[in-house]
Amino acid sequence: MDIDIFKDILVPVIGGLGIFMLGLDFMANGIQALSVNRMRAFLAKAAGTPIKGVLAGTLITGVIQSSTAMSVMVVGLVNAGVIALRPAISVIMGANIGTTLGNGLIALPLGPLGLILAGVFSLVYCFAKSEKVKNIALACMGFALIFYGLNLMTGGLRPLRNLPEVMALLQTLTADSYVNLLKCVFIAAGVTAMIHSSSATIGIVMGLGAAGILDWTTAVAFSLGADLGTTITSWMASLNLSKNAKRTAYAHISFNIIGVCITIPLFFVSMQVLEWAMQFFGGDPAIPVIVDGKETFPLVPVAVGLYSTFFNIFNTLLLFPFIGVFERVLSRVGHTDADDAEDFSTPRFLDRKLAGDFAKAIPAVQQETARHLQAGAMFLDIARSSKKAPPDPGEHYLATDILSRDIRAYTAELMKEDLPYDQLDLIASLIEEADFTAALTESMHQVARRVRREKFSGPAQTIVDVALSKLDVSLREILPTYGISNPQMPAGHVNLPEVEELRARTLALGPNAGAAERGTILALLGSIERAEILIHRIDAERKSVNRQSVLARASARKEARPQSMGDTGLSPVPAE
């Protein structure tokens, strides 16, 4: 039988592959448009412990059907400081399990129905008015196109069996020895790295296996390589991000590499186990089925999907106990002395166990807010290029912003309906103080950025130094332990000048400073003026409520309550 290579092979294979990948993209886009923000928020909230991280990673990846999108999301959340390195490692483990759910779906024999289902959902997408309905239709249309594309590829690849040259080449890719197994794994890893989709690689492999081009053990070996190649995307996403984000990507890479290295020596034993397990899923994948007079191997995709699922579950169960080891080793990657500096993105005093004890929770909030204030004061060290200053103003501000959100969230949780008015008033005062502190930190960040970005001439630098010293002194109003020595007074002055005087000096610089320098100093003085207003506001807020008195009464109520219950055997009277 003559084979038209263009019509019988290239058209269905390239067209089927394109439709398959387009279906993956449509399905991922539709589902992510519906739920990615909720999933991101859920992940940030749920991934508190390694076990929860694995479950969250499995669930979310199973829903959005993209381990690539999931790993990039995790890297981004770690970069933002929302998730720590330890739970992020567990989320990556869960993502590897979650993506295999999609591989199992791809293996379903729904190819002939794919085109008609894609047509139906395409019409729904075109005529739907609601954005939600459009996204649902887009996801379903993508799901249907996956099966149709896979069906096209299988049909287009089948004629290759009649081409001796192609079969001779593919026989060199038979996983019949450990050397050939490694060859298959590395080829699949390279293909996956290029197309950034393990699902697409596995789809191609399923098509080759179903068409009888690859035997079923070789197809399974290619799926093993796809799990290895998919790590490249998370690594690329982390290139310009924080060290912890890079470490998360390295965790993904090392996790999959270790899993593959452990599985390869067990591969041929696992094939015997898989062959036995396939008895419960339809029979021997090596036995062909005649469809329309042509041989096909419909159980090969099932075997590939089954192996991929069990590989990732086995890998997770094997390496989960070593998450702490992963964290310790990865924490040393790219480690510098700056990493030993305090991490202000993580609360030190906000213990969830104290949240139910008002008398203990309030001092914890006060300590954390004072710590936030100290972090903000460090922007002056950054402005002065001090050796003890954080090296990156942007990263330091990001850490303080995360801490600020944690303080506000923790404080708001203390606001119970049955609390007395004086305690509610104190909580409200602390929330306002935390908000003013966050605004002050932002102004201090602007001060540091403006000073660091501009190179000042001698006269201009003198004004900048005086302005920074003025802010130093103002900070001590709310931060008595601020550890910077008394500023040197400019010659001929007893007190530091006001902002208005510094502004006038700036305008009078004339030829002694360029326009850019003067503009920067004026903007700097504006930030300092806002900072001083906020400092006075924080001080006034602290004095607006007699905090010690409220805490003393709260402690007295707590001590009196058990005694009252012991005397009468009745429940205590609600607080007034």
UniProtKB/TrEMBL annotation:
It comes from the Bacteria. GO terms for biological process: sodium-dependent phosphate transport. Its main location: membrane. GO terms for molecular function: sodium:phosphate symporter activity. The keyword Cell membrane applies. It is found in: Cell membrane. Pfam families: Na_Pi_cotrans. Keywords: Cell membrane, Membrane, Transmembrane, Transmembrane helix. InterPro entries: Na/Pi_transpt. The chain crosses the membrane at residues 12-31, 43-64, 70-89, 101-124, 136-157, 202-228, 249-268, 304-326. GO terms for cellular component: plasma membrane. It is a multi-pass membrane protein. Residues 553-576 are annotated as: Disordered. NCBIfam families: Na_Pi_symport. This is Na/Pi-cotransporter II-related protein.
